[in-house]
Write a structure and sequence with these properties.
This protein has one domain (8-197). It has a 6-stranded mixed sheet. It has 8 helices and 6 strands; from the N terminus they run βααββααβααββαα. α3 packs across α8 (175-197). The protein has helices at 12-17, 19-27, 47-65, 90-98, 112-117, 119-127, 147-165, 175-197, and strands at 8-11, 32-36, 39-46, 109-111, 132-136, 139-146.
């Protein structure tokens, strides 16, 4: 289940009390939002899903290096014509590149028992922008990310889906595959413009 799936919500007390069961549910593919005073402050995602998003961020960085900023577009379908895609203005680029990416935080782990014992402190730390990874049964199980980061990833999911539909999986592509995709796409759409003009 990706971030575009159904998000369940639980209050801090219930989540802490049932943390082991919640970790298993999240690992199975159901993200869970942690609510404090009725507002989401953190989201528990399967560790594999968090790793997938880290890889997607690498692919987006490659696109940025090629002056392509999909996050600046109103509609991902604008990516169809990479040859004539207009780069955003410098202020937008600065905003996009300075935007926090908590998913890229260094790996910091905590055992499920310790997470349960210090759950309020853990959630407070995550709410400040630091991702924590819960270890259960001897493996990296669940990433706890800030709620705004989850929202950011949900927006990016549309872009990721567009690229996948166009033949490039940003979660598995190498830097060279991203570059080759962009060059081929620019060649196709650029050639179509020249043909139409001629």
């Amino acid at each position: 289940m990706t971030v575009s799936g159904v998000l369940q919500a639980m209050g801090m007390r219930d989540l802490r009390t049932n943390l082991r069961a919640v970790v298993e549910r999240v690992e199975a593919g159901t993200p869970v939002a942690c609510l404090k005073d009725g507002q989401p402050v953190a989201v528990l995602l399967a560790h594999e899903e968090a790793e997938r998003w880290r890889k997607i961020e690498d692919s987006l960085a490659t696109l940025h290096a090629m002056n392509i900023y999909p996050e600046a577009l109103n509609d991902p379908s604008e990516l169809a014509d990479l040859a004539s895609l207009i780069s955003p203005d410098l202020a937008t680029i600065r905003r996009l590149t300075s935007e926090p990416r908590a998913i890229l935080s260094p790996l910091r782990t905590i055992g499920v028992s310790d997470a349960r014992a210090a759950f309020a402190a853990l959630v407070g730390e995550v709410a400040q922008g630091r991702v924590r990874t819960i270890v259960a049964r001897g493996h990296l199980a669940v990433a706890v990310i800030p709620a705004p980061e989850y929202d950011r990833l949900r927006v990016l999911a549309r872009i990721v889906a567009w690229f996948r539909g166009a033949g490039l999986d940003l979660a598995t592509a190498t830097e060279q595959q991203v570059i080759d995709f962009v060059r081929a796409r620019r060649g196709q759409t650029g050639g179509a413009h020249q043909h139409a003009a001629g």
